[in-house]
Amino acid sequence: MSVDEQVSSYYDMLLKRNAGEPEFHQAVAEVLDSLKIVLNKDPHYADYGLIQRLCEPERQLIFRVPWVDDNGDVQVNRGFRVQFNSALGPYKGGLRFHPSVNLGIIKFLGFEQIFKNSLTGLPIGGGKGGSDFDPKGKSDAEIMRFCQSFMTELHRHIGEYRDVPAGDIGVGGREIGYLFGQYRRLANKHESGVLTGKGLTWGGSLVRTEATGYGLAYFTNEMLKAHGAEFTGSKVIVSGSGNVAIYAIEKAQELGATVIAFSDSSGWVHTPNGVDVAKLKDVKEVRRERVSTYADEVESATYHPEGSIWELPCDIALPCATQNELDGAAARTLADNGCKFVAEGANMPSTADAIEVYRERGIHFGPGKAANAGGVATSALEMQQNACRDSWSFDYTDKLLHDIMSNIFKTCATTAKEYGHDGDYVIGANIAGFKKVADAMLAQGVI
Ligand code: NDP
């Protein structure tokens, strides 16, 4: 059987065994496509059922999360934790609270996390979790009761050497606080290494809040330099206005760019003179309002509830909201308008069609599993500080983050070149991330 036939048969089996999970299929298809290149060169990576084991989570947990709302009514949500692969270290990956969450979405995120965590060079495995709970419009007390109920089940399955969750969409510092409080109460110990993204006075790390957005800017900067470009003087679109987007905007502007637009799920804001980051933080982080409020309060900004953010001409696009937010048509519009670089702050924001367009139109593309790895890398730095009961300065931690992102870019670039696909950072990221995990799995036997 040729490598192509072998990989197609793995994929066909995966489709049958995981019906109705299109995001998971999409994430696996992209990785398997890159792995054909490895298997043609190093066929031993198909031994011992390695690829089939890699695509099957070690453990998948689904649980009921009942809670009482402010009216005294009982609400029932569904909780998930997918512990995908622990060959390199404890499972590590965020929790997402969003009404769109289902098992397939958590599996796609957990699968991506394996390779991302491997690329950081730090000893962490891959996992992901969350719930279909919608935090929008809920009171603080409702958020707290939900988090307490969620952790009442999850606490049995996590631990500093077992599985270390963090935040993702809908889970920030407030939610991590309530989750940690309930864990501490149930476990009867202050086990700081059990969650990351904690508050600074109780085991959190400086730079964790900024890490994914800053890391994305550091990665993008390396990609720009490799192609003779720079942030200075460039126009950048950042989709989203959450944790990743805010700090990507902040760092891109510090490095000399003008961020000309950002968004939320209701619309986008055009900011031709750049973003007032202090105002954006006030609107989103302090007041928890919509992006339209920013446009109401900043004279040069305009709010657009209709149309696509990707229609504005730009040099660099940084999708930082959610999966599949940038499709083939949007990618063509970006290319037609002269965009030369796309780097993903979100997980899988580009559809497979969009990635094809980047390749055809010569857009340099940094995939999420490499470009947004700064968040989980800094979570691993938080785990290191917890393990030695230390806390590092902002500058020291930021320098480590910067070096990790530069190394990830170099690893993607050199691996792509080594395998005959110079400049294709998707292939570089997938192959480099895969080989480290695969070597560990082969060394540890069939488990
Ligand atoms: P936040 O909850 O802080 O912000 C999410 C942002 O994306 C909001 O502006 C939200 O708008 C928008 N958004 C969410 N869902 C949709 C949707 N279906 N359609 C349009 N817009 C949407 O999340 P983060 O910033 O933490 O996460 C953003 C992305 O980055 C996700 O893909 C996440 O997996 C990824 N990521 C996050 C990391 C982290 O450290 N936080 C690490 C690595 C990746 P609205 O408020 O209207 O919903």
What does this structure look like?
Helix content is 49%, strand content 15%. It has 16 helices and 12 strands. Helix 11 (328-336) runs parallel beside helix 12 (352-361). The protein starts with a helix and ends with a helix. Residues 167-170, 212, 240-245, 264-266, 320-322, 345-347, 372, 375 line the site of NADPH dihydro-nicotinamide-adenine-dinucleotide phosphate.
Could you provide a short overview of the structure?
With 447 residues, the protein is an alpha/beta fold. Helices cover 49% and strands 15% of the residues. The chain has helices at residues 3-17, 22-41, 50-54, 103-119, 140-154, 173-187, 208-226, 243-254, 277-286, 291-297, 328-336, 352-361, 368-371, 374-387, 394-418, 425-444; strands at 59-68, 74-85, 91-97, 125-131, 163-166, 235-239, 258-264, 267-270, 302-304, 316-319, 341-343, 364-366.
Separate helix tally: 16
Q: SSE string, helix = H, strand = E?
A: HHHEEEHEHEHHEHEEHHEEHEHEHHHH
Poorly predicted runs are none
Integer average pLDDT? 98
Radius of gyration: 21 Å
**Ligands bound, unique:** NADPH dihydro-nicotinamide-adenine-dinucleotide phosphate
Report the β-strand fraction as a percent range. Answer: 15-25%
Q: Could you give the count of β-strands?
A: 12
The helix fraction, in percent, is 40-55%
Going by helix content, strand content and strand pairing, the class is: alpha/beta
> Which strands sit side by side, in order, in the main sheet?
9-8-7-6-10-11-12
Question: What's the main sheet like?
Answer: 7 strands, mixed
Shape: globular
End-to-end Cα distance: 25 Å
